[in-house]
Design brief:
6 helices, hydrolase, 5-stranded parallel β-sheet, about 190 residues, Arginase, Chain A, alpha/beta
Length: about 190
């Protein structure tokens, strides 16, 4: 889909129906900046706006795959101050994320939750065609472990963002994104997969 700005109005609508929701957020970036290029609504700010509007149950927000450059000396302080669990990419290197997702399921409980997946959460070796690639990211297998690990949660919506088709000459990033989105649809409540 488009850039991560699109998640903000979606979560406004979701919260209108369900109240504040938990969030499984896969990304290279926290997207909790206050302003970017002088704007308060930008693809690096949506989750700060969501916090300010009370759209998220901050005790049930998990950000996975976070890494990369920052404009601040402690780039994760805002998230942690809100009660988010921030799982840095380096905590995921060379291991299965099945145990992590068991913890995430416990944290989410049976209340409504939303999955937001930025394709740049994956290493650019697998998904190079995105606006803000960052090295040393997750693998496609880990992405599947995260998504499949959401099965059984009360998922009320999901998105996959930041695929940049104009740069995707090979189509590999779009193929990976489409497959991950299909897997997200398969973990929605009531979907029979077998």
């Amino acid at each position: 889909g488009g850039d991560h700005t699109m998640t903000y109005p979606i979560l406004q609508a979701v919260a209108e129906k369900h109240g504040p929701v938990g969030l499984v957020h896969v990304d290279a970036h926290t997207d909790t900046g206050d302003r970017a290029l002088g704007e308060k609504i930008y693809h690096g700010t949506p989750f700060r706006r969501c916090v300010e509007e009370g759209l998220l149950d901050c005790s049930r927000v998990v950000q996975i795959g976070i890494r990369g450059s920052s404009y601040e000396p402690d780039p994760y302080k805002y998230c942690r101050d809100q009660g988010f669990r921030v799982v840095l990419a380096e905590e995921c290197w060379r291991k299965s994320l099945v145990p992590l997702m068991a913890e995430v399921r416990m944290q989410m409980g049976d209340k409504p939750a939303y999955i937001s997946f930025d394709i740049d959460g994956l290493d650019p070796a697998y998904a190079p065609r995105t606006g803000t690639p960052e090295i040393a990211g997750l693998t496609p297998a880990q992405a599947l472990e995260i998504i499949c690990g959401c099965k059984g949660l009360n998922i009320v919506g999901c998105d996959l963002v930041e695929v940049a088709p104009m740069y995707d000459i090979s189509g590999n990033t779009a193929l990976l994104g489409a497959n991950l989105l299909f897997e997200m649809l398969c973990v929605l409540p009531g979907v029979k997969t077998r």
